[in-house]
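Consider today's protein:

***
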Amino acid sequence: MTLYQPRRAVLYVPASHQKALAKSTQLQPDAIIYDLEDSVAEQMKHEARDNLRAHFQEQHQTEQSPLKAIRINSLATQWGEDDLKLAAELKTEAIVLPKTETPQQVIDAARKLDDYDAPETLGIWAMIETPRGILNADEIARLAQKSAARLKCFIVGTNDIALSTGVKTTNHRSALLPWMMQIILAARAGGIDVLDGVYNNFQDQEGFKAECEQGAMLGFDGKTLIHPSQIETALNSYSSTAEEAAWANQVIAAFNLPENAAKGAISLNGSMVEQLHIRQAERVLARAR
């Protein structure tokens, strides 16, 4: 079975907030992004980095622990390189690269991670959150075909896209949908996951649920979160249903039959399914588990 790492619920935790860091150890999203960028004031950058180092040293990773990523400051800033060094030192699962606009930004980050002897498993999650980033999303996603680039995931920065373009996020994000689908399409062409942006009003649970359902319908793999109260809804919205799991089991069982082993396509319950549906079925079952 293809290795699948769920990213249904991905929680941002500001590294400058020690209470939030402590509370994060009691939460069970699929992944946590420890933020050194937007949620940390300039005068707190160094302290946030120290907080994060101490937090990692106090924790013990288990198979049940959420994936851990660090959102660094841009490498064009005075803080970015030290953030990157810290991620390599702590051996996180990923760095989150903000405002990614060109393939070269990903390549530069990957090369610096190599220079800092970061493990090969440390990936790059690129945030697509500017007009130039959207226009170059396909070119950036192509890097995923090269393991040296470390690119594993896109994150759509809906807040920054709205800010930089002036579009409104009302009416079910209708003005954003063409750009969101453009990013999703680029991610799929590159073979990487793609995560939806945050929902700002964490007290509006109904609105958040509706946006999660919309994101799942559009094809996102999960949603980034700003508050622990959003975790359960995101997990449920991006998990497989019982019906989907039953279909996936039928697909895998059918292709495991000796008479179907060499076939590229077979008939199943009146529909044609192909070998490509096996990978889809595996992902459905992984989410179901």
